[in-house]
Specification:
The chain is of the alpha/beta class and 209 residues long. The protein contains nine helices and four strands. It has a four-stranded parallel sheet, with helices on both faces.
């Protein structure tokens, strides 16, 4: 509230609210109008939106982590890499980190799996098969993945596990795919600390990375 005093926004609201009880809905509507970013250049407007970063110059919080992932790619290209799991809380920048990986990884082919409802209905392998334009099934998918050096980015690993299905079997299929193909595939996945604890209780996820 103190930040509004003396501001144009504060003066306008004071004039409107004088002699009236404050209405929360009206206050929110008024504040949203003032926070609208349509008049700003696109690059600046994105700074005020709760969306993942997609520009190098705006990505500063986890540059060290990005550098570590790029190093992991070089080691993988030299035959010494391993799958990578990035663990961080919601809103910590995991999605922005994968956005930067899309821009900076040098691998020949990059796939990014969307854990949306349509993809999850068919499961992890079905989503991979769709991206690769190959038949479903772990054998066909593994073969298609190995045709070209490939990076696979998977945000929110936990969202690929259907709580209404056989979670242990689905998670096992994901880990088996990672284990079978990591020599020719750079796997980078993300999850939260709480989700990782739950997943580890189903299958030894941490041991696979």
């Amino acid at each position: 509230v103190r930040g509004l005093r003396g501001s144009r926004l504060g003066a306008e609201w004071q004039a409107r609210a004088s002699g009236q009880a404050l209405d929360a809905i009206d206050l929110r509507t008024h504040a949203e109008r003032w926070s609208h970013v349509a008049g700003l250049p696109e690059a600046y407007g994105r700074l005020f939106l709760p969306q993942p970063v997609r520009e190098h110059r705006l990505f500063t919080a986890h540059r060290d982590t990005l550098d570590a992932l790029l190093l992991a790619e070089r080691e993988w290209s030299a035959g010494a890499g391993s799958p990578t799991l990035v663990v961080g809380e919601r809103g910590s920048g995991r999605t922005s980190l994968l956005n930067m990986c899309e821009l900076e990884l040098k691998v020949g082919r990059l796939l990014r799996l969307d854990p949306g409802e349509a993809s999850r209905n068919g499961g992890f392998e079905a989503a991979l098969a769709l991206e690769l334009a190959c038949r479903k099934g772990s054998g066909a998918i593994s073969k298609a993945l190995r045709t070209v050096p490939t990076a696979v980015l998977v945000d929110d690993l936990e969202r690929w596990i259907n709580p209404d299905g056989d979670a242990a079997a689905e998670l096992g299929r994901i880990l088996n795919m990672v284990g079978r193909t990591h020599g020719g595939v750079l796997w980078i996945m993300t999850t939260s600390h709480a989700s990782l604890r739950l997943l580890d209780g189903i299958q030894p996820v941490s041991a696979a990375f």
